[in-house]
Amino acid sequence: MKKTILTLLVISSPFTALAATDSCQDQLANISAKTEMAKKWGNSAEVARLNIARDNVERYCTDERQATRANHDVSRRETKVKKAELELQEARQELDEARADGRTDRISKKARRVEEKKRKLESAKIDLEQARKDAQRLN
Fold first, then answer.
1. d(CA 115, CA 47)
2. Among residues 50, 71, 96, 126, which is most buried (max CB within 10 A)?
């Protein structure tokens, strides 16, 4: 089981660099570091995959494209925050309705749902802040 998980992580590692909102130079540095580690451990298959990833970054990566990707990510995360805010508002309304009915079983269920939506909103806000930092760094 551990070997399977480790294999999946190693196999997917060169491709994560292409999807990241890091600058092209940062991606190349990351790939180079991973290549050195793979060479140190004698993992020729991983070195080959990393070389392909490096070639793809060199061929397709531009700082403008990365900045555009980061700005798009910010927009997506802003939408996610707005959606989470609406869900929290709806959950609070449902809780208020349950309190008006006086049913304690529904009140506790709706209170848990409000707490869940609060956590979801906080997580979305943290993700948005990180996306904004990434975009600012690339712009």
1. 46
2. 50
Nearest Cα neighbor of 9 from 51, 38, 40 is 38
SS (H, E, C) the chain: CHHHHHHHHHHHHHHHHHHCCCCHHHHHHHHHHHHHHHHHCCCHHHHHHHHHHHHHHHHHCCHHHHHHHHHHHHHHHHHHHHHHHHHHHHHHHHHHHHHHHCCHHHHHHHHHHHHHHHHHHHHHHHHHHHHHHHHHHHC
Which pLDDT score is estimated for 139?
Answer: 82
Q: For residue 51, give every residue at least 6 positions away whose Cβ sits within 8 Å of its Cβ, in sequence order, or none.
A: 35
User: To which residue do tokens 């992580």 refer?
Assistant: 9
pLDDT tens per residue, range 64-119? 999 999 999 999 999 999 999 999 999 999 999 999 998 888 999 999 999 999 99
